[in-house]
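Page 47, continued from p. 46.
Same chain as before, 108 aa.
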Amino acid sequence: MVDVQHRPLRFKFRLIGTELVALLRHDHTGRWLDEALPELLGSPVVEELEQAVMTRTPGFCRSPSYFQYGEQVLFQPNVIAERLFLPLAGNGRMVNIVLVLTLQGNAR
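Result:
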C-alpha cells in the first residue's frame, strides 16, 4: 500500500509485503519512495502510480523486475513483474492510497 501526497505528488510506503521486504533486505514502511528507492523514479512503476492517482482508475504494468539498490542488484534481469494498481479514495474523490499487487516470475 502506498500513501499519496498531493502538491507535490509524492508516494510513501504505508505497508510493504514480507516477500518484498525480504528481497529488498530492508523494510521501507513509512518512508518516501523517492528517498527510499530513488532509482525507481521515471520507471514504469512510478508512472503507473501517477496515472492511477490522476485518472482514478486501476492500472497495470508488466516490466522487468530489475533495479539496482546501491551497488547491489536485487532482481535478475530475466524476472518479470506484473503489477496491478488500485487507487483508493477515502472521500470518494481524491485518491489518497494506491494498493499495488505484484506477481513475479521468469520471463517467457
